[in-house]
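[Solved] Which block belongs to which protein?

Original post:
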Amino acid sequence: MHLFTIICEFRGGTYTRQMSAKDPVRAFEQWAAHFQHDNVLSPAEKEMFETAVAYSLSENGLTAMENLQNVWYEGFSLGDDLLEVMVIAMSPTPVTTRPAAHPAS
């Protein structure tokens, strides 16, 4: 497990949360479940958010930031507004997007 800091910029606000997860995709998924219930989004935006997050997760949508270690980005439009998310692993060693499968012993 790794500790991740998730920073979200939306409509002039900055929202932060820390999550423990195996990888940044799972941290993003956990964060999204919490953010959806934080009363930041309107009902229509919540619908768009759910769709965008589901698509991102199905496509492994986090983008590793070039020249940075353990920093990923995801962003999407909610109506006329852009929601941007940075996922940062709080680890001195590289963290992979998906951990390698371990063969059964």
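(Second protein starts here: sequence line, then its structure tokens.)
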Amino acid sequence: MNYELQDRIPPRISLIAAFIIHASVEIPFFIFPVILLLVGSDLFQESSSIGWLGLGTIGTVGTLSAALPSPFFGKLADNHRRGVMMTFSLILATIGTIIIGFWGHYFLIMLCGVTFLGLGVSLYHPPGLSWVTTAYEDPVTHTFSPKYNQVLALHGIGGGLGASLGPISVYFLLGPFNWQELYLFWTIPLVITTIVFWLFVGRFEPKNHRLVIEEKAEFVNNGKELIKKNIQSSHIVLIIIFAFMIAMSLNRGMIYFILSPFLSEVKGIEVTEAALFIGVSTLIGSAGQLLGGYFGDMYGEDVVLSFGAFFTVGILLIIYIVDSIPILFLAFIFHGIVNAIFWPSTNSLVAKNSRYKGQAFGLVMLIANLVGALGPILVGIIRVLEPGSYLPIFLFASLFSFLALLFLLYLRKIIAR
């Protein structure tokens, strides 16, 4: 089976390039959650209540900017050069780091900088996921690589790497640099990645990759019978997956936003150590992408997703109750693994049930980030209503995990038919 969709770019090169860009745009985006208390002390010195609402607003705006444009970017990804879009995602992330680095001590400017970081993430995902999934799909028969989930897992690890390198850099660089200079530090690798990707990979993509697919399909039996026979278009599966994502995005949005202050205020861990704690556990936990890809190919995506939703609740309980640092660190690692397990199977189900992948992944990112954006603002509201307790946050997050599990149980019935 020939999986070389891009005429001039081998699938393996496509995957490596997407891996690096995925990591690059995620790094600055995931710094803010672990330096919440530092940013709050600079921007909101007069009131802790206003501070939490302000920080929640920044987190929500950043997530919304990563969500709202996704369907539009997905439509562009189905009709235009994805390499150009991926290059511009790096440029937007670079602009965000520069704005925060120089002027982030002003609330409105910080909002603007975080918005650019979110836009960089948003502009990457639809074309990036489409770039990878189509590289490992036969353009004529629409059959998939037998290691399709594992390919998506490798791509997802790039995002996990970025999500962990951001917090880890806080531990090692916060001291020599202040938190604004930390963002400026990441400007340099972003600029280098942008130039290298465009010069050696991105500019070689065909001007209209979708037209290339359709021409190849037309060449064999006019493409119509093969497309109808092989491409899946199960709307009910997509609806269930989107419902599942809504529940889990609320879970992730709330929990990830409060992990750093929770460790600092409840467990007595310094901010920089909490950042390292989260970063290292996320980095190790990103191995869950490989596990999710392997078991997704072996047992089916629905089984993997059900497993993850079930164990999320138990892990959150351990994190809230346990005070032992080694056990807590182990729980954070498992939390990272379980969260990483979701993505290969989720993206695989979406790709297999969608003809226009860019638009489908645009909708995926819209749901994940738009709903996830409610997490920080919900945390801010709960902290104002219950300033002395993190328990309501963990209870709400656990409830959303149970709801996600119910959606998956229904999905398994649908797939079994």
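Accepted answer:
You had them paired correctly. Confirming on the second one: The two ends are 28 Å apart (CA to CA).
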